[in-house]
Amino acid sequence: MFITRKAEFSASHVCSNPAWSAEENRRVYGPDANPNGHGHNYVLEVTVEGEPDPVTGMVFDLRELKQILNQEVIEPMDHRFLNREVPPFDRVVPTTENIALEIRNRIQPHIHRDGVRLRNVRLYETADLYVDAAAEATGKE
Amino acid sequence: MMRLTRRYRFAASHRLHSPALSEEENREVYGKCANPYGHGHNYVLDVTVEGPVDDNGQVADRMSLDRLIRERVLVRMEHRNLNQDLPEFASAVPTTENLAAAIRAMLLEHWTLRPRLAHLRISETDRNTFDLEVSAS
Fold this sequence. Notes:
The complex is a heterodimer of chains A (141) and B (137).
Chain A: E1 2-13, H1 22-29, E2 38-50, H2 62-77, E3 80-81, H3 82-85, H4 96-107, E4 116-126, E5 129-134
Parallel strand pairs in A: 1-3
Antiparallel strand pairs in A: 1-2, 2-4, 4-5
Chain B: E1 2-14, H1 23-30, E2 39-51, H2 62-77, E3 80-81, H3 82-85, H4 96-109, E4 116-125, E5 128-133
C-alpha cells in the first residue's frame, strides 16, 4: 500500500551556471535565469510504501512523516532564497529536479524500517510542472 | 532516472459516433456524446518524459519540450473539430482513449528530445481522466 503526505513551501531561486554568460544561461534556463531570482509555491508529495502494521493498522505514522518533512524540508526551505540560504544550492543549480533529489536524500534516511520504504518524491514547481524522483531507479512507476 | 511532467491545455470539439453501429446503438453506447452536431471540452494534457538528470540539472529542457508539444499536438488540436479537422479521426471515433493513442503517435513520429516519452494523461473534464503509459522500447 502507498501512503502520500503533502507539504508546501514557498521559496525563491535562480537557475544559472556561474561559469556561463548571461546569454547562455538564458538559452538553457529561460526566465528561470533572471539574475535576482523569483519564487514559487512548491508542493511536495512524499509517498511511502509498505504493508499496514497488524497492530496499529498504519503503514507509517503520518504525524512522524509530517515531522520529518517539517524538519528536513519546510523549516530549512520555506520562505528562503534557495541559492543563498540552503546548501547545496549555493553550488548546485536549484532546478526542480535537483531540489527533488535533495529532498529525497534528506528524508530517505528517516524512512528506513522493516517492510517500509520511501517510494517517490513528487515536487510541483507550479500546477503545470512537476518531477517524480523515484526512490529506486527502476525506470518504472 | 527521473520523470518530469508538464501540463498543457487545448479546447476542441468532437462527436462520438461509429458508422459501424445503428443510431440506436450509438445512442446506447455513447449517450449524449453521440448528439449529431458534436460538443466541446477543455482538454488537459499531461506529458511525462523520463531520463537522467543532465549536467544542467534537468531531465528535459522545458522550452524544447514546450515547442515540440505545441508544434506536434497543440496547433493541430486547439479550437478544432477533432472529427472533421484531424485525418486521424476520419474513420476512428475520437474517444479520449483514441485521442491519447493519436497524440502518442504524433509525438513518437517526430520525437527529438533526449528523454523518452514515458506517459500521457488526458482529462476530458475534471471527472474523466485517461492514462496511457508509453513502453520503453
